[in-house]
Amino acid sequence: MDPYTPKPEHKFSFGLWTVGSVGRDPFGAPVRDPLSPVELVYLLAEVGAYGVNFHDNDLIPIDATPAEAEAIKREFRKALEATGIQVPMATTNLFGDPIFKDGAFTSNDPKVRAYALQKTMRAIDLGVEFGAKVYVFWGGREGTETDACRDPVTAIQRMREAMNFLCEYVLDQGYDLKFALEAKPNEPRGDIYLATTGHMLAFIETLDHPEMVGVNPEVAHEHMAGLNFLHAVAQAWEAGKLFHIDLNDQYPGRYDQDFRFGSRDIKATFFLVKFLEDVGYPGPRHFDAHAYRTEDYEGVKDFARGCMRTYLILKEKAAQWNADPEIQALLAEINADDGSMAPYMGSYTPQKASALKAFPFDRQALGRRGWKYERLDQLTVEILLGVR
Fold first, then answer.
1. Fewer C-beta neighbours within 10 Å, C or N terminus of the chain?
2. 329 lies in which domain range?
């Protein structure tokens, strides 16, 4: 068997909106006919995915009658049972309908804010019905083009009120569900509140139930702001808040491109995969990306297979990196510790502080040290290029 064939234990998932993208963009009409949720489940089963995620209206149109909604759910459930595809995550579309043009939870209209809560509660019920354990919040319209419209402090307070309300709703219903907040700096709004993963981590600590809420970092969103995605993921992991993750690729400083995973910056992608595998991240590897607009649905399958295949190739490369004798020898040398600083480090004591202030460091000698990072990085590149 091909060693890069996806298996259920790899937990690769896609959103209905990813493989179901019809290729519309701001300058052009759709290039692919829409497929139903059932058809998309079978497409994902064909390419070897483990899971499918959805916004509420990816599955059930916003104006569907109760009878229509039940029929759609019935057919979707049959497809899941027939294929074994799981639903690990769900979310709400609070950005597509014109009612949300000034935001959802942060809108200046209290009726819009109330409708957003109603819509989200119903969408949470839907996600839980299909087994979702994580609920993602992306505030696509929670932003502004002019700060004349509202005080940003008011926006933060409204976001907090909404998240506290929805946490209480989940607790009251007895759902086994956690929330994951997804940051993005801009688009479709000129500026979006809580623009990076770091912003979200700080915001979470102000909530009534911070233990229920983590983050869903996305490669493209951090790269749009020119940031290092690995560092955002590492901070979230270290804080115990990496509840979900969105994998794709992106050129820095551009519009949200949602490229196939690993198609743009292979070295950054490698270190991300290496981190997730090294720490044993247990959640789904969710690909929030889209096939090129040039593709038909065979091309969409190529896109989905490519996301998973690249991840597995880089997982193998990460194991090779970890086992490479020269790389490990360099790391041992770089991180060598003779124990001489141990008496001065760690928790503060007055005695440690006095002793450290008096210690005679050889600043010139320390400054002359070469760290061999050039060699270490070159060895990484050679592994990725397949010559090592």
1. N
2. 325-384
